[in-house]
């Protein structure tokens, strides 16, 4: 996994966490769901990169 990919995935996950927390704080279900989706997407990308790395070795 490239360092750039790691940083992008971490940033996307953090952004999702922030949106999710903001949605919780303001009782905005749409924002909360959007944050959860972004966080999940980033986690899946990171898992995919780890699988690719496993097959490279």
What is the number of domains?
A: 1
The description of the largest β-sheet is: none
Computed CA radius of gyration, to the nearest angstrom: 13 Å
* Unreliably modeled segments: none
Structural class: mainly alpha
The backbone outline, from C-alpha atoms, is elongated
Helical coverage, percent range:
over 70%
- Beta-strand percentage range: under 5%
Q: Count helical runs.
A: 2
Summarize model confidence as the mean pLDDT: 89
Strand segment tally:
0
Which series of helices and strands comes N to C?
HH
Distance between the termini: 12 Å
Q: Can you walk through the features of this model?
A:
The chain starts with a helix and ends with a helix. It has helices at 3-26, 29-56. It contains two helices and no strands. By secondary structure, it is mainly alpha-helical. The chain has one domain (3-56). Helix 1 (3-26) packs antiparallel against helix 2 (29-56). The mean pLDDT is 89.
């Amino acid at each position: 996994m490239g360092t750039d990919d790691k940083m992008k995935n971490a940033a996307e996950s953090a952004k999702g966490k922030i949106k999710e927390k903001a949605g919780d704080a303001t009782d905005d279900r749409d924002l909360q769901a959007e944050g959860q989706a972004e966080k999940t997407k980033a986690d899946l990308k990171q898992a995919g990169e780890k699988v690719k790395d496993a097959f490279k070795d």
